[in-house]
Amino acid sequence: MLVLQQLFNLGDEEVEFQVNDRHSFEEFVHLGVMNDIPNATTVAFFRERLRKANVIDELFEMFESYLRNQGLEARGRQIIDATLVPVPKQRNSREDNKEIKANRVPDGWSESPKRLRQRYLDACWVKKNDINHYGYKNSNCIDAEHGFIRRVQCS
Asked: How far is CA 78 from the centre of its chain?
């Protein structure tokens, strides 16, 4: 689902909807009609676990290696795309924000795992075209001929 999300520039809720709606997406993620599709929160939580484990680059390198083995090696043009992925705005106190910026979980948050899962502790505010956006910035390197993502960087 993360590959589809990057390939089609989808947010967490949108990728959940598209996998439920499109048979081709459902097949790509190897889930059938009888399987439960992960919801948007699960996708966000999984992406965050991968990011914290520093394996996103490794996974996309494995995906690129697989494509190369299938004869889909890019030799031509590359497209670099920077995308903002919005997340729900956080309503934190100033003290909580200080803790988050110091890479610490605010007091009391660990006691409520359900609440903590709904927090985007590493999302940030970004200004684009004089408009403030809250979320993540994804930079993708895409093969122009085949449309495959070659590299991804989330920040």
From this structure: 21
Tell me the backbone φ, ψ of residue 138, rounded to 5 degrees. -110, 130
Cβ contact 108:118 at 8 Å: no
For 1-33, b where at least 16 C-beta lie within 10 A, e where not — what string?
Answer: bbbbbbeeebbbeebbebbeeeeebbeeeebee
Distance CA 56, CA 52 (A): 9
For 34-52, the pLDDT digits (tens) are: 678 888 888 888 888 888 8
pTM flag (> 0.70): no
Q: Where are the alpha helices (DSSP H) in 1-153?
A: 2-8, 12-21, 23-28, 40-52, 56-69, 94-101, 113-117
CA neighbours within 13 Å on the CB side: how many for 60? Answer: 24
Q: What's the CA gap between 28 and 3, in Å, rounded?
A: 10
Rg (CA), the chain: 17
For residues 117 and 48, give the distance between their C-alpha atoms in angstroms, rounded to a whole number: 10
Beta bridge partners of 78: 143
Number of Cβ within 10 Å of residue 113's Cβ equals: 8
